[in-house]
Amino acid sequence: MTAKWMSVAEIKQKIGESSAEEVTADYLEAIKKSKINGYVTVSDRALEKSKEIDSEGHKGPLAGVPIAIKDNISVQGLPNSCGSRMLENYVPPFNAHVIEKLIEAGAVILGKTNMDEFAMGSSTESSYFGPVLNPWDLERVPGGSSGGSAAVVAAGEAPFALGSDTGGSIRCPASFCGVVGLKPTYGAVSRYGAVAYANSLEQIGPLANNVEDIAVLMDVIAGHDARDSTSVPEEKTDYQAALKDDIKGLKIGVPKEYFGEGISPGVEKAVWDAIHHCEALGASWEEVSMPHTKYALASYYIIAMSEASSNLARFDGTRYGFREAGETWHSLISKTRAEGFGDEVKRRILIGTYALSAGYHDKYYLKALKVRTLVKQDFEKALSKVDVLMAPTMPNPAFKVGEKIEDPLALYLSDVNTVPINLAGVPSMSVPCGFTDGLPVGLQIIGKPFDEPTLLRTAYTFEQNTDYHSRRPPEVA
Question: Catalytic amino acids?
Fold first, then answer.
């Protein structure tokens, strides 16, 4: 029996009955037959590592379990391209904190997954290595920017994966691909070793086919890291202990602003059906208002692009990565950045540089920071009355490849329900809650800072009483 689509618990049982090498070989075979362009690099050390685990009898919680890693998280000895020509041949000499934790736990890294260039996008179409295709419909996008990570999990090419989420980059592809994705509280997981896009917004987080595997992965990767100044020294949380099939008495807030203009009727119905299902399981719900939501998208994009403008200044061809020859230092940098970056990245750098420039800093960047505070206060007020918030993850199901790539504004608008969460720094996860026109719909569950256990319990209960998470894409089955 192939390991494809097995849970982590099932994979560990299979390893005990056969071997880690056999499990890894199963996934490598699935990757070889892939139609979705989910991986940028497949590790040539994966089989060797699994053989070592078999021979040494590794006892870690993930001993022999394969995992896929988004290509902006540093893995020593594997390319870390960030989906860009600029870093096409860059190989980091060190491991990110989360990778150190995975290796310590005995995980086998299958490879690096395709992504929107420098994590800037909602469709994984801006990758220098070509678009990722959605396993549910090969003519559609998988969402972004962690589209490769979500797609390989949905397609059975990895049991779970790591992504990063700056404005919805884990939850968007989780919703479009019908998998579970968690954006942890800002500071819960170390960002050391992740290539920065917007430092004050982004978090590394897990994607998997079920809630239990999300908890398993969080138990490994979460926790304080002194090398990351944004890592919060909270007490270690037992995420798996939260997996109880019980939401009796849970108070759900439904923010009316998240069901606004432009939401697909099929998505709205699936999400309301999920909320009513939770009500039938013993929870209660009430409508809440988050009045500053309408300003969140503009605030987010000004802050994110400003931080990107600063962070990406280091990619200039003088130290590492892609280099275009120039007669002078100035022309070398200018040509390198013109040729090394794609259109979307250049667009965001230019907008961010403009927002930070003299005369405009106060008008745009400073104002965006003030709006961010108001958005955060909306969450604090709403979450003081309820345990969790529930809303659609994305306003629509996955759209067709090429449909929005020429219209950046339409792409940005698709993030309307995910970016406020990053501005506030609270945890949020997307779980499959239905289908519309044969495409998956994600229910977004939003919680209080560092209260991932309540999110996991809520999502786990919903999952135990529905079967959406167990359905598989026909395109790759």
Answer: 70, 145, 169
